[in-house]
Design brief:
273 residues, Rossmann fold, 7-stranded parallel β-sheet
Length: 273
């Protein structure tokens, strides 16, 4: 018989260990803060170039919440790097309860902003290597750990651009666009999520995804794009990183014990018109 929990118990992550990839980026620190506030010990993982930022986030969390966070280098291009990171995490904590596949690579460069007809193959491969193959590899490595411990929660980060075609009109005369590789990768992440949820059914491993809409990034998005994008949302604005906290905490906690194989869309109605 399933024991009924209080609301506080449903969202309590005390004693849980949560690994966050790409944790030094725009959204990673928000996820780390959210789960730490709920009591989790978070592992801030990112590439070597982000080591200082990762350590800063780790230090801030420890001071703020008194939990036991850890920063670690993990290169999603290399399975050996992921395996080594997993070993270090197990040596420190003895388990991995939660994996958040947040890392993404979608730079604004001449190659990634090229017209589809002239899109560079190397640029295509690099985006897919991080945004899709990286998720595949981390799910492989940490999925084995979760199978052995007979428990785990994986939350992958998709995108509305993995669900619907990008409306290129919102980019106006900026010369920018949404890269085809990013759309292909995020669509793959969403369906890989469903595949793994079904594959690990009965193993006490839940796998879900969150598909955010556009997140406001000061200094990167121009006024024309912002106005065009906000016009297409039902709430009339872009997301702030904090708008994703509730969805993340829900999927990583016992509040979503009966949820797996789902894609939780957080887009202010962008995909519901």
């Amino acid at each position: 018989m399933i024991q009924k929990k209080t609301n506080a118990q449903l969202f309590d992550l005390s004693g849980r260990v949560a690994v966050i990839t790409g944790a030094a980026g725009q959204l990673g620190p928000e996820y780390a803060d959210c789960l730490s506030e709920a009591g989790a010990d978070v592992v801030i993982s990112d590439i070597a170039a982000s080591k200082n930022r990762s350590e800063e986030i780790t230090s801030d969390i420890k001071k703020k919440y008194g939990t036991n966070p850890k920063s670690i280098t993990m290169d999603l291009f290399e399975k050996e790097s992921i395996e080594q990171a997993a070993k270090e995490i197990l040596d420190s904590y003895g388990k991995v309860d939660i994996l958040i596949n947040n890392a993404a690579y979608n730079p604004i460069t001449k190659e990634t902003q090229a017209a589809f007809e002239n899109y560079n193959l190397d640029a295509w491969k690099k985006i897919l290597d991080v945004d899709l193959t990286g998720v595949f590899l981390t799910c492989q490595v940490f999925g084995k750990i979760m199978l052995e411990q007979q428990y785990g929660v994986i939350t992958n980060i998709g995108s509305v651009y993995g669900m619907v075609g990008a409306d290129q009109r919102i980019y106006g005369e900026s010369g920018l666009n949404s890269a085809a590789a990013y759309a292909a990768a995020k669509g793959g992440v969403i369906n890989l999520t469903r595949y793994l949820a079904a594959y690990w059914q009965g193993k006490n491993i839940r796998v879900n995804s969150i598909s955010p809409g556009g997140v406001y990034n000061p200094g990167v998005q121009n006024e024309e794009f912002l106005n065009n994008y906000m016009y297409k949302t039902m709430l009339g604005r872009m997301a702030a990183p904090s708008d994703l906290r509730g969805a993340m905490l829900f999927l990583c906690s016992d509040a979503s014990d009966f949820v797996t194989g789902s894609n939780l869309v957080v887009d202010a109605g962008w995909t519901s018109w």
